[in-house]
Amino acid sequence: MSATAETIRSGRTALGIELGSTRIKACLIDADTHEVLATGFHDWENRFEDRLWTYSLDAVWTGLQEAYAGLVADAHDRYGIRPDTFGAIGVSAMMHGYLPFDRSGELLVPFRTWRNTNTGVAAQELTDLLGVNIPLRWSIAHLRQAQLDAEPHVGDVRFFTTLAGYVHWQLTGRRVLGVGDASGMFPIDSTTRDYDQALIERYDAHTGGDLRAMLPEALVAGHEAGSLTAAGAALLDPTGVLQPGIPFCPPEGDAGTGMVATNAVSPRTGNVSAGTSIFAMVVLERPLAEVHHELDLVTTPAGDAVAMVHCNNGASELAAWVGMFARFAEASGMPRSADAVFETLFREALDGEPDAGGLLAYNHLAGEPIAGTDEGRPLFVRTPDSRFTLANVMRAQLYGVFGTLALGMQVLADEGVTIERMFAHGGIFRTAGVAQRFLAGALNAPVAVGDTASEGGAWGIAVLAAFLTADRSLADHLADRVFADAGVRIAEPLPDDVAGYAAYLDRYRAGLAVEAAAVAAL
């Protein structure tokens, strides 16, 4: 305990902060061993205002301060010390979205998150113009849609960024992004590990603008990206204890930190990150043959090309069903913790039929571009001959989390992309051997879950912060220093699960017409 306290006191640590869709988390690690020393968190929710998903900037700072204060309190409770410095800090957040600022640094419109699907016209125009898939949630699609809609603020935009880029800017004064997060704003050239200059010129010729001047500088992992200013220290820690001058790594998106957290930054590896959204990242050995609307081309934090299957809807609908059963237990006079209810229901799903007994679940709380819908309508569908049991219901709900993802991954398989192993992380994988097994069946590939799976991106960005002092490639650093002795559990795809999920997915694909009808009718 005293040795750990000395590690914290002397700043031989790295602090990672991630602003996820439902939780802001701070994670302190030992910079040498990468062991988690303390954590803090703040729960928050997006708001649907004026038909757009958003978070207020006040909520950003309130949440960051609470998460940081929780981490400090946790460190004090465990080791009797309140940290006032760190070896390095990293900030991560949900990718994409739109935060435009004027010349004086004032936000021009409320933060538009990745979840918004109002950018269809712009996304299609840019995909045709640039010859690469530009998804609805990308920052450049948001900017272009605002231009096409002649929104009053567009003439005043001098700079736009992501949520991670905004927080980093306020803490350090630097307008930069990690290249992985930048790749969700505008396409990256993996040879230069910077924005694709030819595509920028094509965009400028089409719009008459100067796009590069408006984008944050893109930096690869391992580059120092500024240091904590006095004003930034006061923003993060209003008590005044935190000292300025701490170096920062480039701010990254949740996709990049998920890749780091699962050691999935080398070709033929990939990862699945499950939360409010769910997405898969697969590091490519070669360019894709065609443009596919189901696949984004982004990069690792080191700038290597990645195919991304991003789904707007992840585990939120599953959590709502679990919450209903938790309330039933409470109303019955037998209250159970949320973790206990999740584990009970997940274990029950193991007894379900391989195809979920003919049941079908759509987790679409928001629009889902891969599925062709621009609004969400969660649905649970069965036919008179379906086997309506608790085990099948829960298996269908868990299968539904992976439904749209599986559609996109099939496109990647059709491109001939080989995956040796998928790594998974997120709270849904905390119950060992359930969601992991079903995902292996859905992808027909081995799925690995590590001991840090539930720590997720906050741990991943802390690892990137510690990487500032490394003298090797990110892939080698992760393999040799971070994951050399890491515990990993691997689920091989079971034949019955593979066949059962294939049958479920056929039903899921056919039932998208029902989902579309629900959007139109309700």
Core attributes:
single chain; alpha+beta; Nucleotidyltransferase, domain 5; five-stranded mixed sheet; 24 strands; globular; xylose metabolism; carbohydrate metabolism; ATPase; kinase
Characterize the overall form: globular
Q: Give the overall average pLDDT.
A: 94
> First CA to last CA: what distance?
58 Å
The percent range for strand residues is 15-25%
Order of neighbouring strands in the sheet with most strands: 16-17-15-14-22-23-24
- CATH architecture grouping of the largest domain: 2-Layer Sandwich
- Quote the CATH topology of the largest domain: Nucleotidyltransferase, domain 5
Q: What percent of residues adopt helix (DSSP H or I)? A: 25-40%
Largest sheet: 7 strands, mixed
Number of separate strands:
24
The quaternary state of the protein chains shown equals single chain
List segments where confidence is low: pLDDT < 50 over at least 5 consecutive residues. none
The SS-based structural class is alpha+beta
The structural domain count equals: 2
The CATH homologous superfamily of the largest domain is termed ATPase, nucleotide binding domain
